[in-house]
């Protein structure tokens, strides 16, 4: 199967991938800014989901369809939904949290300026490797899609880290249970054996009631 | 995957199997088997340690073995650090039983989590690939976060767990970012290939990546200025967990730091070595000065551990990993002893944690006070106790590496630090006792206190063999 990028490149009018890149990138940036500026935290999470989708689109343009799908499944499907739950369940006054914003602005700006200065100094003294400016990518050795390639090495070459990842997940599971599980004491369970062994003679009592006297 | 290469993972496989077995036993039999589970876990740790020690016996100094697909690489260095981790973890687990029972959180999962954390530490120490390093580091960190919040009904413990988790996740993020930069600029995740690539063309991008990796690892060993989490987590976590934190993960993280510095990033040494003396100086001074105002013993010990990390880092800054191993080995002895004293002190079923609670200890329990005094003198570095000789060893390493200014700062820091150690002794011996303590019934704790105090005195005799062992262990690390 050819990559999506290859398909786009061969499609009539090769401006299409470039155009898609800019559309996705601009929406991604907008969504990113909105995540931290939206007043309603639920909106922030929804913008985060939008950002994830656009990033997935960018990965798709790069021909990395496996990461793109992973981003959608894991980040949108699990992480963002979890965020949404947490935001909706926590009773936090976000206006109160935002109060310190102006007061701490100078400090934040200072940190930003220092970071920017470091970045600029670093960029000035940068020397490019041969071919880097022409956008030479890594050499692709086989024509298989990257999902196929990952599948070929994940359970063979990367067996050991993969198994350890399983252990890490087990630790996460143990941790979640240890920290939250409480044995319930007041549970009323159905006792099937007791129900089956009930006999009418033990529980039923026939009274002969005379008219007009009551029980 | 042949058997010989798989044998490099034997300690990890054994520990994992033991942990899984104990987990199943704990799940099906419930809390009544906790004692058996904990004892079996201690036994497993000690057996693996014994087996590991036996394999180190009679092995050539340049022995090393590569594991499956080159993901792990064991040598005498990794075996020695693992040995220290296993033994101290077993000790820390033994200390915990009485406390957990009193607080009614004595559950089999505690021992299982300790076993899994130690497995993670062994994996990250064995790692010769950044992917493996990350997996091991993450495995041990996750266990530690849960252990910090193990007393889940106490607000302070859950707060400690959460703080540790959030800051630890940040450090993990930095580590991953650094690893991705190193991968991008060298084209490999394997330690050996990164070293080869960097020795041919030391690119600036890889150096930035190493910066991120270094920050993450320094966070794990709690070097200032990446130490902010330590006092809060140490104070909030249950005391036996604090005892565990102050020793076991520190040794493991230091081992990893040395392996990474002298492994893949050895070609960049002239670019990062200058940074370590500066950090060591800041850490030693901050550990000494910030501890002065503390009234809580656990916070005090947190700053004390930061100070000790500074001294150990001085050894690394002097380019002498031997002295780091020796320093950490005897720091573990003193720290476990002090925490055992702390765990022994309780009154009316309540833990005593402030320095004032020690008042008049010498009159109520002269033996315990004497042991604590020995441990404190040793931590302060007063001759002829072992703490003095390990400090001296690090100072000599610094002077030999032409870092005389660092040795002077170290001396100043230990004089300042001596103030609060001696203050504890003063409170124990000269203040009026407040009330009696509960009876000591925990044989593990009294045994540990006695053993560690004796080791602090007799360590003088042990220091030469430990130096020899460390000398062998670093043979391959730093040729």
Write a concise synopsis of the structure shown.
The complex is a heterodimer of chains A (215) and B (479). With 215 residues, chain A is an all-alpha fold.
Overall description:
- The complex is a heterodimer of chains A (215) and B (479).
- With 215 residues, chain A is an all-alpha fold.
- Among the domains of chain A are: 1-111, Up-down Bundle (Four Helix Bundle (Hemerythrin (Met), subunit A)), CATH 1.20.120; 142-173, no CATH class.
- Chain A has helices spanning 4-10, 15-37, 41-61, 65-89, 94-98, 100-103, 105-124, 146-154, 159-180, 192-196, 200-203.
- In chain A, helix 3 (41-61) packs antiparallel against helix 4.
- Chain A is elongated, with a radius of gyration of 31 Å.
- The relative contact order of chain A is 0.05.
- The model of chain A has no long low-confidence stretch (mean pLDDT 83).
- In chain B, helix 18 (386-400) packs parallel to helix 20.
- In chain B, 58% of the residues are buried.
- Chain B has helices at 3-6, 10-29, 34-56, 76-102, 108-126, 130-148, 155-186, 191-200, 204-221, 229-236, 239-262, 269-272, 275-290, 297-317, 321-344, 361-364, 366-380, 386-400, 404-430, 443-477; strands spanning 64-66, 73-75, 346-347, 350-351.
- Chain B has 479 residues and is an all-alpha fold.
- In chain B, 76% of the residues lie in helices and 2% in strands.
- In chain B, the strands form two sheets. Chain B has a two-stranded antiparallel ribbon with strand order 1-2. Chain B has a two-stranded antiparallel ribbon with strand order 3-4.
- Classes of the chains: A mainly alpha (215), B mainly alpha (479).
- The A-B interface holds A 122, 125-127, 129, 157-161, 164-165, 167-168, 170-172, 174-175, 177-180 and B 1, 9, 16, 23, 67-69, 71-72, 107, 109, 112-113, 116, 119-120, 123, 129, 131-132, 135-136, 138-139, 142-143, 145-146, 149-150, 152, 161, 203-204, 208.
